[in-house]
Amino acid sequence: MALSSLVSSGMLLRGLCRLTLPRLSAVAPSRVSFCASTAARAQKEWIEVTYEKADGTTYTVQGKEGDNLLDVAINNDLDLDGFGACEGTLACSTCHLVFKKEDFDNIEEICTDEELDMLDLAYGLTDE
């Protein structure tokens, strides 16, 4: 499942924290980047991102369109214990996402075997 598909779906992150991305239709959600190109980022629109921890604590911060969610959390110095334990190398499951069924059904790309194997390790994994 490509990250661009995840971002375009109005995702929720459960376990360590839950994430809601408001106003996704107002941005270009298919534009997700793992690169650190400041030239490309300078022209991007600022968007609001809200993280909600399992205990109900919420953090609403600003990020640039196309930033990955781990970088947004780091750049805003958020206290999200364990989030991004692998430093964004996709080698752990601390940042796994949980979708509403109707959002998941709209994802066009199929999970790879590697992604499914990583989900088997995810804390609090559900079928929903």
Automatic annotation (TrEMBL):
One GO molecular-function entry: metal ion binding
Gene3D superfamilies per record: 3.10.20.30
Residues covered by the 2Fe-2S ferredoxin-type domain: 54-111
InterPro entries: 2Fe-2S_ferredoxin-like_sf, 2Fe-2S_ferredoxin-type, Adrenodoxin-like, Adrenodoxin_Fe-S_BS, Beta-grasp_dom_sf
KW Iron-sulfur (keyword) present: yes
Domain of life: Eukaryota
PROSITE patterns: ADX (PS00814)
GO cellular component: mitochondrion
Keywords, ordered alphabetically: 2Fe-2S, Iron, Iron-sulfur, Metal-binding
Transmembrane domains' residue ranges: none
Cofactor(s) for this UniProt protein: [2Fe-2S] cluster
A family per Pfam: Fer2
GO biological process, one term: P450-containing electron transport chain
PANTHER family: ADRENODOXIN-LIKE PROTEIN 2, MITOCHONDRIAL, FERREDOXIN/ADRENODOXIN
Name of the protein: Adrenodoxin, mitochondrial
Originating species: Portunus trituberculatus (Swimming crab)
